[in-house]
Each structure stands twice: as C-alpha cells, then as structure tokens.
Amino acid sequence: MEDLLLKCSVHKDETLKMFCQDHIQLCCSDCVLLNHRQCTNVSLISESVKKLSLDMKQLSINLQTIIHQLNMF
C-alpha cells in the first residue's frame, strides 16, 4: 500500500519526490521535466515539509498573540 502512495500515477516506476506549489501537485522527476518546467515553485517534498512546519509554528505564535490580546479586553 505504501508503494502505491509513493509512486507516480503517470510514470509507474518513478517515485514521487517533488512538489509543485504552482499546481499543488506531487511529481516525480519525469513529471517535472515534462509538465512543470515553467513552474516557479517546484521543490523537494522534504524541503516543502520543512517550510510548512515553520509556517505552522508561526501561525501558532500569531494565534496565541491574538488570543492574549483578546483576553486583555
């Protein structure tokens, strides 16, 4: 089952390694070369996850600040 989730649906033997933010799509290397050359936001999945993690931490901090401010009223 895990292999099914990690493999490209178009290029069956390729592993999904990239994420295209422009299309919100997981891609294998072949897909990137064939369909995402013009995209400006293609990165490794591992790098996208790191960035998302940082964004979520910042969101949490912002929400805590807002809640604190609301509680002061």
TrEMBL record:
The keyword Metal-binding applies. Keywords: Metal-binding, Zinc, Zinc-finger. GO terms for molecular function: zinc ion binding. This is B box-type domain-containing protein. Residues 3-47 form the B box-type domain. The keyword Zinc applies. Pfam families: zf-B_box.
